[in-house]
Amino acid sequence: MRILVTGTAGFIGAAVSEALAARGDSVLGIDSLNDYYPASLKRDRIARVSAAEGDFAFTQVDFADRGALSAALEGEEFERIVHLGAQPGVRYSLENPHAYVESNIVGHLNLLEFARQREVGHMVYASSSSVYGGNDKVPFSVDDRVDHPYSLYAATKKADELMSETYAHLYRIPLTGLRFFTVYGPWGRPDMMPWIFTSKILKGEPIPVFNHGRMQRDFTYIDDIVSGVLACLDAPPADDGTAKPGGSVSPHTIYNIGNNQPEELMKVIGVIEQACGRKAQVEMLGMQPGDVLRTYADIDAIAHDIGFAPTTTVEQGFPAFVAWYKDYHGL
């Protein structure tokens, strides 16, 4: 298949692009290479994917720029799209809200329009566990109400789901939204906890622990995420009028994609300490605006429909990340 991957220089996007190319798909990856975090890491990911076996090409373009996107993809045909590009990060959305509207709402609309105009057979897109806000009921189910986001980032991801439902209803485009739960692993993002904590522990600097460590996260290893994304891509929702996970009777499915195993933050810090070979200096802080106390994915729907079954524990995944981090930085 010919597949368009957005955010291909990102953490998940690069891993998905490499896996698609490795299995024989033709992949065109696009990314703006913006400066939210160092573009050097993004270029290194692109170089890694380009050096691997398979048919992969890269074009730098901002998909939130409708004219630039149209020009970049003029004459290109794709059977499917994996739309992973977005402005990520809960805390940064407090500082730069316009970036989230431009990338996550305008950009998402641009991809929906492209899928409609080119009659793409299926688009898988990135949502987020952040849409659950402060829901007290756990585990979080795709059938839960998600009307009270705690951050603008979460609100834009909920907006993506709503726009996708509209396009599935109006134009019968098969769409699958994936609510990712705290993805981590080699080649991860510098703004996320695994990178920040590993960096500071190895440097002997204090790590910021919010809500005094009383937090839980459903950490999901990158290899498990990639297997789930590819399986979803291969299984477009049917336009048969039946209710899908998430409640749509149009060809639009929403899945949680997580480890189904929330972990105590202090436990994970201990795993990282052991992998780093040194104790952390811990700076206990209050709760950050926009944060939630816990995330916990109910994955029954994605397990039933596509056989998704994560296998990587935090005791395996975090040491793998630390080993990669040391190697990447020559430590």
- Integer count of domains: 1
* Helix proportion range: 40-55%
Strand content: 15-25%
Instruction: Give the CA-CA distance, first to last residue.
Output: 40 Å
Figure out the total of helices: 11
Radius of gyration computed on alpha carbons: 19 Å
In CATH, the architecture is 3-Layer(aba) Sandwich
**What is the number of strand segments?**
13
Rounded mean pLDDT score: 95
Low-confidence stretches: none
> What is the H-and-E element order?
EHEHEHEHHEHEEHEEEHEEHEHH
Would you spell out the secondary-structure blueprint of this structure?
Layout: E1 2-6, H1 11-22, E2 26-31, H2 39-51, E3 55-60, H3 66-72, E4 80-83, H4 92-95, H5 97-117, E5 122-128, H6 152-171, E6 175-180, E7 183-184, H7 193-203, E8 206-209, E9 216-217, E10 220-221, H8 222-233, E11 252-257, E12 263-264, H9 265-276, E13 281-284, H10 300-306, H11 314-328
Parallel strand pairs: 1-2, 1-4, 2-3, 4-5, 5-6, 6-11, 7-10, 8-13
Antiparallel strand pairs: 9-12
Helix pairs in contact: 1-2, 1-8, 5-6, 7-9, 7-11, 9-11
Outline:
The chain has 331 residues and is of the alpha/beta class.
